[in-house]
User: Fold this.
Amino acid sequence: MDIEYYLRSLFDLPAKREIRGESTRFIIGSRGELKRVTTFSGEKPVLESFINQIKSSDVVWDIGANIGTYSLFAGPFAEQVVAFEPHLANINRLQENANLTESDIDIRSIALSKEEGTAYLDVSEEYAGAGGGSVSVEGSYETSLVKGDDILPRPDIVKIDVEGMSSVV
Assistant:
């Protein structure tokens, strides 16, 4: 994987991946991103099942979107995709990936919660593709907490991957 990462970084080559006959591309800027994209973080069967559930009229919410793996693959099958991600490096890469693939994803730079307010995102690593962050009273940077019940459009399908915080989403 180090050789692939080195070559992709050296020549600025996006990685192309395919699921259910649809391909998408990802910008690779870190080893974490390369691993996430090449292995689907061990979730390829889950991602395929998720995609198979989507109908063309569905609104899909990707909560904890990271760099957009689920959002980008959902796009061709859904009416609308809304991606929620509070980690700044991931938001930036998600936007770059959406631009690269000309995907129309509604990206929201917030954390969903059962309470409105402000919290701090404590991230273990600052690069795009990093996971494992947590919301706390102090941390790397401030993020808005928004109640999902207050957000439109309402979802038909929801993917939640928020590192152990799903009970407060």
The chain has a mean pLDDT of 86. The beta strands are 15-19, 22-26, 59-63, 80-84, 105-108, 111-113, 117-122, 134-136, 141-147, 157-160. The first helix runs from residue 2 to 11. The domain at 2-164 is CATH 3.40.50 (Rossmann fold).
